Structure formats: C-alpha cells, structure tokens
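Researcher: Let's continue the batch. This sequence belongs to Cysteine desulfurase, and it's 361 residues. Same format as the previous ones, please.
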Amino acid sequence: MKNFKKQFPLLKQYTYLNTAASGLLSEDLLEFRQDHDLDFLISGSILKENQGALLSDVRKAVGKFFHCPPNQIALTSNFSYGFNVLLEGVEPGKKFLLLENDYPSINHAVEARDFKTCYAKIDENLEENIAEVVKREKPDLFAFSLVQWINGIKIDLDFLKNLKQDHPEMLIIADGTQYCGTEEFKFDASGIDVLGSSTYKWMNAGYGNAFFLFKESVAGRIHPKYAGFGSLQGKYKAEEGIFIGRFEPGHLDTFNFGSLLTAINLIKKIGLKEIERAVKTISAEAREAFEKENLLEPEVSKRKDHSSLFNIKGDDALFQHLRNNNIICSQRGTGIRVSFHYFNTSEDLNTLIKAINSFKK
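Model: Same format as before. Here are the structure tokens for Cysteine desulfurase:
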C-alpha cells in the first residue's frame, strides 16, 4: 500500500473515519487555493477574464472522469441546489419513487412539491423491493442515493441498468455524493438518466462545487425555469435556452471549481484504479471485523456487496470514547457511522476495534 496519508496532514493527528461527512483538504488543494487567491489579490478582474477557459477545463475533466460529454454537464454549488432546479422543471402531479429514509435533500425536496410519491424499503432486499414497487406503482421518476447515508447500503448498478431497459420511460435520477470518487463509473453506459453529486466528500474537492450529468434525452422531458446572465456564458451555452444553462444562472466561482479540477487531477495522479482497489480492500477488512464483533445490522451483513461506509452499534458514550481517542466519526441513525477512504489503512481499522473493545471492559 502506498503512503497516501502524506497528502492529508490531519491524518497525523487523528484516525479519520469520517469522509462520509466531510472529505479532507489535501496539500495539492491547499496549494491551488493559496495561489488562486494570491492571483486574485494582485490581479483582480484580470483573473476573472480567464474564468471561461477554467470552467471549460473543469467541465471537460468531469466529463472525461465520468464518461459524459461536456455539453451534458451542469456545474452547481451543491447537489441540493441542482436537484431543486431539476424538480422545478418536472410537471406537477408526476409520480416519484423514493427510498424510505433516504437523504433528506432528496426526499424532502420531492415531498415539498406537488408530486405523487411511493416508497421502497431499504434493507437486504433493496433491489427486489424497488422492482416490486415499480411494477405495482408505475412511477414516472425514481430518485435516490447510490449509497445510503446512514448505513452505507449501495445499490447494484447492474440492477439499475436492467431496470432502465425494462422501464425506459421512467427517468432514473441518482445522487452520487456518497459514491463518486470511490471507483470508476461510466455514466454513458449506465442505466442512470441524471447523476448529481456534491464533491466535498469522497472526491476531496472542498465545499461549494458539484456537478450534474445528463443523458441527452433528459432535456426533452424536464424543463427548468431558472435563467440568468450565467445561462448564456461559456463554451457550451452559446444559445439562449440551452438546458445546462438553466442550472447555471449566475457566476460560477473559479476558487471552488478550480478546487474540483485540482481534486480530479490528484485522483488521476494517484490512479482511480488504485483508489478503487484500496477502498474495496479496506471495506472488506472492515466488514469482516465488524461482523466478527457483531457490530452490524442484519440488512448490511446479508448484502453481497457494500460500500466503505458502515453504521456500527454504539451509543453516545461510545461515540465520546472514540472522540477522546482521536477517532473521528459521526452519529447517524441509532448508531455510529464510520467511513473508510483510500488513505485509511488496516492500522486505522485496528485502532477503531481496540478502542471499541477497551470501552466494553
């Protein structure tokens, strides 16, 4: 295993198992941000005169990373903003399929509007539950997280591809915030029509930047109402009414989106395949250790595949004990959420297990 920790100084002080809450600032990202603001300090609007080229590079980098044409990518400040813009373009009265207890930015945003809703249960039979509700309720749209924020249950991407083939008329809208950056993903070959993601978690790009990927057919079915000067600015938005321009009515910050470009370049430097291998390795080790200690709920233990995000059994006292031992994690649902990224090691996992066992004594 390569020493990935050098990029993230915080790891010298803490056992950081909290990427699912907030990704870390890397040395490369800090260097970009310092240089960017120094340039802004001494050049002012001259820096902004070149922002079109930078944003074009960001769009191209995102497109290459996720296998999506740049002219089908919208840049937004976060997932929630982009998703709400999208929902404003959906005809009232349409029926949405949601997952029970999915991330509030998805469910609450849909439920706050004049849509019909139906729900599938999140458990070890997630895919079967979805297929059953789709067959019975015939929803127009299905919106969900690729990885569940509380327990880390990860939907089967092959299932989504088959679901789309069986129900081509249903729009499939996915939140990749707890997924993007953990493994290779080819949007163009997937069953997903819209993929949105904030990038401050697993891509370690900081706050204030996100992206939405669209299949070409989406523009004819969703009609967002937002518009502004930014809707017409940029290489891929030369004409009024361009679909992605509806998601970008105002200025896009070169600081934040330059951070996204820097984060993608760091991932490329490390190697996405290497990151994927590291994430899957530590995830498998963690799952085995947690099952041995009886720390997982049955719906997770019974799944064939899982993410690197886990909810382990534990109360306030255990959470505080872990924090006192410099182990950073989060309280979510009825337990404690721990998440492992490519820079986490077996040593980090052992530190966690030892702290849990010492608490039991």
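Researcher: Any comment?
Model: The two ends are 33 Å apart (CA to CA).
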